[in-house]
Amino acid sequence: MKGLVCFLLLFVFVVLQKVNGGLHEHEINLQLSSEDRRQNPPQTDTLRDEASADSKQHSDLGFPNIHEAVRDLTATVTEQKDNIRALETRLREQQTFILEELKKKTDETLSQVEELRKENRDREIAFSASLMESGSGYIGPFPTEITLTYKNVITNIGNAYNPTTGFFTAPLKGAYIFRISVYGHSGTPATTEIVKNKQLVVLAHADQPAVAINSSNGVVLLLEVGDVVYVRLQPDRRIYDNQNNHNTFSGYLLFPLK
User: Most buried of the four, 8, 22, 205, 251, by CB within 10 Å?
Assistant: First the structure.
């Protein structure tokens, strides 16, 4: 009996030691767990904190303001489009202005050219004629001088020469050049002269005892409007002509004078 009591007391003591030791160990474990949580936060909280930090960083970088960025970009594009349209409008206006100015200049140039052409047409004065329109034969001799009419008109620019009268009438004041050629046969001298307003200026004379005879002469005359130039055959002179146009009278305006 005494031994049983001792066994029970020993058992109780061991149990109490176990209980006390367990409680002490549990407290130690709780303290260690609390310290570990302070030093090493749970993984879930850490990830949450990191996500929150990233979100804040992204917010600071402006990524959440994408709509505002799009609005700014749209406004910029619209402004650029407006600028382009304005530039296109100015370009069209400048093109229109340039074309109008070019047309004006072209019209002015064409008008000036037409005036020059008209002026030149007025100054285009030239003629050339021979004695006979057809056939062949002698003219002369006559007891007095006669005015020769060169009926075969080769050129008559400006119509200043009259083949009916043989007169050239100056349409403009200016310097004119005239030439005559004379042809005949031996036995009778061939002499013609250029006359201005009934005044002899120069003559062409040919005379020899045998074969054909010929001569020529020319002169520059200063004429007023209406002055008359023609050719006369001197008295007792004879000339010959045919389809070869040996006897000619020609002239042209060298330059006009004011």
Answer: 251
Farthest CA pair distance, the chain: 212
Rounded Cα–Cα distance for residues 164 and 149 (Å): 7
Kindly tell me the sign of the dihedral angle through the C-alpha atoms of 161, 220, 181, 192. positive
Q: CB under 8 Å to 243, separation ≥6 — which residues?
A: 132, 134, 135, 136
CA distances from 197 to 123, 143, 168, 223, 256 (A): 22, 22, 10, 10, 19
Residue 161 corresponds to which tokens in the numbers above? Answer: 């020469």
Q: Which residue has the tokens 């109008």?
A: 100
Per the structure block, which two tokens stand in for 103?
């047309």
Q: Taking phi first (over 0 means left), then psi (-120 to 50 degrees means alpha), and beta for anything else, what does residue 249 get? A: beta
> pLDDT tens for residues 203-244?
999 998 888 999 999 999 999 999 999 999 999 999 999 999
What amino acid is encoded at 133 in this protein?
Answer: E
User: Using CA atoms, how far apart are residues 187 and 167, in angstroms rounded to an integer?
Assistant: 30
Q: What share of the chain is helix, strand, coil (3-state, %, to 5)?
A: 45, 30, 25
Q: Give the alpha-carbon dihedral of 178, 123, 121, 151, to 10 degrees.
A: -20
Nearest CA to 183 out of 127, 232, 142, 238 is that of 238
> Going by DSSP bridges, is the β-strand pair 152-157/161-162 parallel, antiparallel, or unpaired?
unpaired
pTM score, whole prediction = 0.57
The total number of residues shown for the chain amounts to 258
**Can you tell me the distance from the alpha carbon of 185 to that of 101, in angstroms, rounded to the nearest whole number?**
69
**Beta carbons of 249 and 133 less than 8 angstroms apart:** no
Report how far residue 78's alpha carbon sits from residue 55's, in angstroms, rounded to the nearest whole number. Answer: 32
Helix (H), strand (E) at residue 73? helix 66-123
